[in-house]
Amino acid sequence: MIKKSRKVRDYKALTKALPTLRYLNPSSVFIHLQNGRCKTYDLSVKEGDHVDLGEVIGIRHGGFFEQPVHSTVSGTIGSVSKKFHRTGRKVDCIEIINDFKDTYHESVFDRTDEEIKKLTQDDMVDIVREKSLVGLGGSGFPTYIKLGTKEKINVVVINAVECEPYLSSDYRLILEHPGRVVTGLKYIMQALNVDKAIIAIKSEKDPLFEVLTQVLKVRFPELNVEVAKLGNHYPQGWEIEVFKWALGIEIPFGELPMKYGVIGFNVSTAVGVFDAIKHNLPVTKRHFTMTGDAIKFPQNIRVRVGTSVKELVALCDGYKEDLSEILVVMGGPMMGVSTVSDDVIVSKTTTSVIVLKNVEYKEEPCVRCGSCVYSCPAHLEPVQIMNAVKRNDKDVMKGLEAYKCIECGLCAYVCTSKIHVTDYVRKAKIKLG
Ligand code: SF4
Ligand code: SF4
């Protein structure tokens, strides 16, 4: 039987109704010096140095950009050690021992509304570049590059769909801090000289629509911002789907949305823009979902960037199961990366950690049911790509356009034979370079 599905069980009820817990004073933070985009770095501090909150302690080097590295506490520099990154790789991290004083560095200061009104696009681009802001929904793409576009933008879209199961930190962020989200959007609109914006949320009945509509009406009557309810299907939060359903614009694969007069930012990134422009502050804290059926008390937590996930597990009262019987997933369960350890650090782009009972599914042979083909949002043929990977036939992988896969995980989710189809498509993408 064909199992066509764009619906996945969402499990958000585990955390959605709970107020965000604050855990902002770990004894140490561990700041990633490398990440998925930046392989090398230089440090401007050494062990024993004192640093302030928000101070630059080094620089990461990417292929075509550089990222200043900031301290997220005030305290003393410790040593460099290897820790797991959300990509599943071990990378260098520098410890900063918290002095619990939260002494802000002199580079952190407030701008008045009048000062902000005078900022140009170039000024704002320089600020978010210096503050090292990146896509906080997980993409990690440098925000200054997007904000610096010279394309004519007609509409800004804030993506608040958060379609991955289990995740609800963006939801809580909007519910608890709608003014910061909308002010961040306002600054983005100013930078891009745009007079129209959309905040895209899911269509399910939740308070976000009411909250945002009220805040826009009462606090931002001058802004032309619509709150758009989109569908509940997965992956509705995929940017291409958001633009299609919110604006009716279909962006062809490989094309930049900016060419079509539209640009999208995640909710947390909008708040990052607010902090950078208003307070000249880098991302030192983030909303984060700690959840899963193997954790005792799932929570949304506001954490200091650099906090050890092990500490957050303890905050949630630990695991229900023995550590050897669980699976730790960084990011959402559909697109995230599972790790062999919980020795992971929360980075700027870590949206969630999901701890699941490690149920081993026995793969059965493919029954050619076609479910993966009918469900693929990128209109690919995952089963055929899988077969090409097994034969190591790169020409067929290319012909089947495996490179268009967005790694949404749906093909594996719907597979009646419990085959990890997405893993095969990922392998095809790697083989195709
Ligand atoms: S092939 Fe890629 S895009 Fe298509 S369903 Fe599988 S993971 Fe999603
Ligand atoms: S890979 Fe799975 S979903 Fe796809 S055709 Fe085979 S059995 Fe069906």
Characterization of this structure:
Strands 1-14-13-17-15-16 form a 6-stranded mixed β-sheet, sandwiched between helices. The protein is globular and about 65 Å long. It has helices at residues 113-117, 121-130, 143-147, 169-176, 178-192, 208-219, 239-247, 267-279, 309-315, 371-375, 382-391, 394-399, 410-414, 421-432, and strands at 21-23, 28-32, 38-43, 50-51, 56-62, 66-70, 75-84, 90-98, 155-159, 197-202, 225-230, 262-266, 285-291, 299-304, 326-330, 337-339, 352-357. It folds into 3 domains: 12-17 and 26-107 and 283-357, OB fold (Dihydrolipoamide Acetyltransferase, E2P); 113-279, Rossmann fold, CATH 3.40.50.11540; 371-432, no CATH class. The mean pLDDT is 91. The chain starts with 20 loop residues before the first strand and ends with a helix. It has 14 helices and 17 strands. By secondary structure, the chain is an alpha/beta fold. The structure holds iron/sulfur cluster (SF4) (2 copies). One iron/sulfur cluster binds at residues 366-372, 383, 414-417, 419, 421.
Ordered list of secondary-structure elements with their pairings:
Blueprint: E1 21-23, E2 28-32, E3 38-43, E4 50-51, E5 56-62, E6 66-70, E7 75-84, E8 90-98, H1 113-117, H2 121-130, H3 143-147, E9 155-159, H4 169-176, H5 178-192, E10 197-202, H6 208-219, E11 225-230, H7 239-247, E12 262-266, H8 267-279, E13 285-291, E14 299-304, H9 309-315, E15 326-330, E16 337-339, E17 352-357, H10 371-375, H11 382-391, H12 394-399, H13 410-414, H14 421-432
Parallel strand pairs: 1-14, 9-10, 9-12, 10-11, 13-17
Antiparallel strand pairs: 2-8, 3-5, 4-7, 5-6, 7-8, 13-14, 15-16, 15-17
Helix pairs in contact: 2-5, 4-5, 5-8, 11-14
